[in-house]
Amino acid sequence: MLPLILHATGTDGGLLVNEPTVMAELFNRIGMFLSADLDSAVRRRAELCLIDSITCFSAGLGLKHFKPSAAVASSMFGNESTTGAGSFTPSTIHTAYIYGQAANALDYDDTLLGHPGAPIVAAILAVGARENLSMDRLLRGIAAGYEAHWVLASAATPSRERAALVRSVGVWDTVAAGIGAAVSLGKDPEFLERLVGVALSHSLLPYTGKWYERPVPALKNNLGWAAAGAVMALDLVQAGQTGVSNPLDGSTGMWRMAGSDQLDLTKTRKDLPAISRVGFKHFPACWHLQEYLKTLASVLPQLDEREEIAAITVAGPADVEKFCQQAMLAPADVAFSLPATFSLLISNVEPGPRWDEVADDSPELRYKSRFAFDLSDKRSIKLETTRGRIVMSSVEVSDPHDLANRGLDESGVVAKYERLSDPQLRSALASGLAESDRGAAELYQAVHRLIAVAGADKHLAHPR
Known about the structure:
This protein is an alpha+beta fold. The chain has helices spanning 22-30, 40-60, 67-76, 92-105, 117-131, 135-155, 160-163, 173-184, 189-200, 223-238, 254-257, 287-299, 318-321, 338-346, 354-357, 410-420, 423-434, 441-455; strands at residues 5-7, 80-81, 88-89, 262-264, 309-316, 371-375, 380-385, 390-394. It folds into two domains: 22-281 and 408-455, 2-methylcitrate dehydratase PrpD, CATH 1.10.4100.10; 287-394, CATH 3.30.1330.120. It is 44% helix and 7% strand. The strands form three sheets. The protein has a four-stranded mixed β-sheet with strand order 6-5-7-8. It has a two-stranded antiparallel ribbon with strand order 1-4. Strands 2-3 form a two-stranded antiparallel ribbon. GO terms for molecular function: lyase activity.
């Protein structure tokens, strides 16, 4: 069967090469997660996605630029009053919103054509808490949500020329998170199809590269809103609401809404499921910075501890230059700045919330002024020391369709988790994974406690 390929030709048309639908492709890809037992390798990857997401959620809760989200959400969303830690039990939509915002706040969360984990895990945990779902159900929903995100985002990837103007990062997250939550509840394909039409109406607009301008907005992706929209869409469908007809297909399908100029299902077909290809970040920074930072981390041990770095030169193509601005106008700027992240790494500042807290005039950022960018077809870094020594290294390029081997391995994910996550949350997650066929009540309570504390604006200490 030939794939569906549509190319935008104007305001109202496209070129149809063949007739298989995006919806059919979507259900073909997520079908493996609807009923059969998860493959052991896929299940472990789903566990790692949850573990890494819990880490990023914990790390994001205490950030200054996250606190407005926590404060406003606690007063806006309906919550059940309680006593004890925090003053309320967060509602389902509140849980989804705050979890999604916090998990992405530090830009440390996983990535594959966007940030699938933050909104998908947020929606699934929120619904799971309401229904006291088992860990088995959560992991099934996570795997299905990641696959749905991959199918939709990869099929609608715009051409290079169009991508320079508009991208669909975040647009597909509400649909994917809704599908993940629905699969965790055991909903059938008919329900899922109706859900897509409703979730589309709750989806975000595509961005136009504004977050590369300084100051970087704290709401770079607004993934909490994407997760909350997924929960709202799910409940509306359960209440009998209907949505957009034939939402994904044809010349007016959601790919148009996502700002793309083409739809190509051949891009979706990979041997491994999406959850096996997602990348776990080494550093709290945009994925485009990761390979440069990894290279720097591998080079620094070559220097004598008494050697001072006098100059840093990063070489790369033109699209790297936007990550080379030195001025930090807001905390979120750090995640998009090679000068800042290089300086923090050289200064031995632990990757995590501390990267978000360092002031622009801090000594830990003194190396920013020694940074230069060199336009080149090849990517590399060069360090010059006060002793006149030069250390150079090439920088590899990751495959955006399979980031697993470029990100943290399992031991790295676990180490990051143990370093940054809330201890009570770690204990609760361990219990849920150990008794995976039972309701994960302890996990849900731990998540709710942290959200309640954040909403009450109490201090959240990051574990050291």
